[in-house]
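Researcher: Let's try something more involved. This one mixes different molecule types, so please make sure each is placed in the same coordinate frame as the others.
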Amino acid sequence: MYETTYHRPSSVDEAAALFAKGTESKYLAGGHTLIPVMKQRLASPSDVIDLGKIKDLVGVEVSADAVTIKAATTHYDVAGSGPVQKAIPALAHLASLIGDPAVRYRGTIGGSIANNDPAADYPAAVLALGATVKTNKRSIAADDFFKGLFSTALADGEIITTVSFPIPAKAGYSKFPHPASRFALTGVFVVRTKSGEVRVGATGASQNGVMRVPAIEAALKANWSASALDGIKIPTSGLMSDIQGSSDYRANLIKVMAQRAVTAAG
Amino acid sequence: MSTVKLTVNGKSVSADVEDRTLLVQLLRDHLNLTGTHVGCDTSQCGACVVHIDGRAVKSCTVLVGQANGANVTTIEGIAKGDELHPMQAAFRDNHGLQCGYCTPGMIMSAIDIVHRHGGKLDEATVRHELEGNICRCTGYHNIVKSVLDAAGRMKVAQAAE
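Model: All components are placed in one shared frame. Result:
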């Protein structure tokens, strides 16, 4: 790892000001992506700005309509939050499947979606639930937030402050984890909103990162049951194909994970 | 360079280190606490697990700045003098270690697991919770046995306190 300068601001405004001062600044929350990337010398930020200790960025708020998670809240705290488990159990379940216990103590929701790893779990929930990502500058709808592999709508220096998930009528998440890293080989989050809309987000499958799956959405809108997907064939074009699984295999996994997620959602 | 101040195994520690220093490097290279191991250095194997403010985390993936002001406990800090921590004693009694390389991390993770689950631990839970700790001797069977044994002992020890 190259030498860097570490900063620990106590407010979002201070963090943004520090970011602007550095020649090549990076934000750090849990550090469980940035630090490994720095070790590999794939990133060599002049300044590392730690958002993890900003009190305003930690916590969960649940209202009648939405679960709002502040950006530096850890996966452990989301997974174990009673109010989240009650309002959107699938979201707490998803958080409990990320990495391993030690990783969940450090990793944060803001870090996960800002990085937008194509096999990360949270993007599937953000997209399927139609969440709103709030930053220090604006609000961004989930459909406009993810811009392909490791890219998002965030401008340089912009800081995610909260992610707000509308509480759905039903939701479920199922993933087929990579056996070593626990990243999703494919993970599917299914949602039926209170107004009857069906949204499905798949992670780990597409070459362009998280995506919606229109064929599954249409089938589940007509009939919300696992068996409604029996005859579905997912097109393989644009799906990842690597040593872990071919695009055909992943296409099938999307269907099977969606079926399990519907079963879990009830 | 920055000065970091933290508490390690109950003692106040201060060190002048480069900002890129990892917590595990501070522990091993500056404080000579070499019980904490570096296995994969990619936050997968868990040989470097220590407790920061009571939570078991991978010290190879924490910058010292992040641990500034924190309370850190390593494998060297859990015994009471010559009396092993119940988790250490259970690992010894159940042959929970072979080469021993993963053991410090296993024990630090296992203590955290027992703290979180208390008396509700069963074999499946222990195996699931140890996902982030890898034993390349593949000695998992006795490691799981040790953790379950220790869970009982820690409950007894807590009740006695």
